Amino acid sequence: MKKGEKAEVIADAFYCEKEDNKELFPFELSPDANTTFEIELVDFYDKEMEKWDYSAEERVTVAAGFKDEANKAFRAKEMEKAKEFYTKVEVYLEGQTEPEALALKISVKCNLSLIHLNAGDFKKAVQWASESLEIDTDHVKSRYRRA
Description:
Helix content is 54%, strand content 8%. The protein is mainly alpha-helical. Helix 2 (56-75) packs antiparallel against helix 3. The relative contact order is 0.10.
C-alpha cells in the first residue's frame, strides 16, 4: 500500500464477536454476518537498513558515518551514545580488510579504549587498545592507552 491509499478488509463474524474484542468493536454485530472495514494508510516509516543490505564498500561509508556520530556524542560527553555508535562501526566493519576499513577499526577501537579508560574500566581499556594494536602494532595512541 501507498500512503493515503485505502483498502477494504472483510472480517469473519467469528473474529469480531469474541468477548475479548468488545473494546475494539463496541457496536452490536450480527453473529452470522461478516464485517467490512475501510482502512487508510495514514503514515509509515522506513526501516533502517541492516548491515547485510549494503555492499562491502557501502558498509565502510556507513560505518564512517556512525563514527562521526560517535565522535559528536563523545564531544558532548554522551559516552553511552558514543559507545553505541562505535559498536555499530565494529559490527559493520566485521571481516573487512580494506585499508580504509582497517584505519576506521583502529580509530574506533582506540576511542573505545579511551571511553573505558575515562570510566575507570581499565581491563576493557586495555582490551580495546590491544585489539587496535593487533591491526597496527605501531599505533602510538593505542600503545599509550594500553600502557
